[in-house]
From TrEMBL:
Matches recorded under Pfam families: AI-2E_transport (PF01594)
GO annotations of cellular component type: membrane
Region of interest: Disordered: 347-383
Keyword Transmembrane helix: yes
Organism field: Planosporangium flavigriseum
Protein name (Swiss-Prot/TrEMBL): AI-2E family transporter
Similarity comment: Belongs to the autoinducer-2 exporter (AI-2E) (TC 2.A.86) family.
Amino acid sequence: MTTPRERTPARITLTVIGMVLLTGLALLLVYETRRVLTWIVIAAFFATALHPLASWFERRVPWIRRGLSTLLVFLLVFLVLAGLVAVFVVPLVNQGTQFVNDLPRIIHDTQAGRGPLGGLINRFHLRDYVAAHGAQLREFLTRLGAPTLGFLRGTATTVAGILTIFVLSYLMVLQGPRIVDGVLDVLAPRWGKRVRRVGRECARMITGYITGNLLISLICGVLTYVVLAVMRVPFAGLLALFVAFADLMPLIGATLGAVVATLAAFLHSLTAGIVVLVFFIVYQQIENHVLQPLIMARTVRLDPLTVVISILIGVELAGLLGALLAIPVAGVLQVVVRDVWRERRVRHAADRPPPDGGKAEPPPVGAGAEPPPGEGVTPRRTG
């Protein structure tokens, strides 16, 4: 007959094996559903940014309930997105059509050595290179048509992802307060109050970062479009849209957009290239020293080293999406770590004994205070 002591090692071994198998299954599940989990994370960030606006509508107007306030907020977001499409996409389509119509003339001028591309071809003797490697270039261009099906499939997946994120964000804003209240009711009152406070700080930080970053990118895109349009650089709308999207990426995005726009301006003319280069140098100084501190000073308080490390880790884990979400995730972790450290200090201060070894003297009895029972009272003689 085996004793409980003899069964303990086998039980521990089986428990460890079970935990390892469960961890492996959890990691496999995360890997297989990584695309859906990415959509959920993006939707959660957007829902966190839109939740205060829906709550504001619900508080300000008494007859508006949560469902109606959420619907109004998302209608407002849809109108803003439609306005951005009208401002950027319509000129982009017109310029794309113009580029297709002008493509034969551009090719003819390039072959004749005219225009910016023709001058580059003559200067660097690229015509001789094209003539010597014509067969390889034609084979390369033929292979470019092979990934068309994959491109279409990726486009369909992107559209489905955008719609899914929109629906998930709507449901999170609509049902979020009820779900949060239900989870916090399960916790103890002290823990529930602490989680609510930390969550409020994280939500304020995420909302400020998203709105501030979008505002800075919008300013950058509009000013870039104005400068490119004044200098008559071709495809100013497309270049400005690229610069605005690139500016969403912290640190390196503005430089990347500036390089592309400046190269396009130099291809147009030397004067336009110099003007656009000076504009980006001046604008990046204003953005780094005026716009960034003014808009994000009260939201994301991270030192530059933490920002760079967060972006590098985010790019390595999730590419462009990781770069966009690296700073808010680092800010959330900073809020959580700061709260844990604060709670630990308070707990250590409460457990620390008094300096006098724990013997506290009773407070002196003042002139107007009532003395304790049995002290300061002369007993009455009887008899």
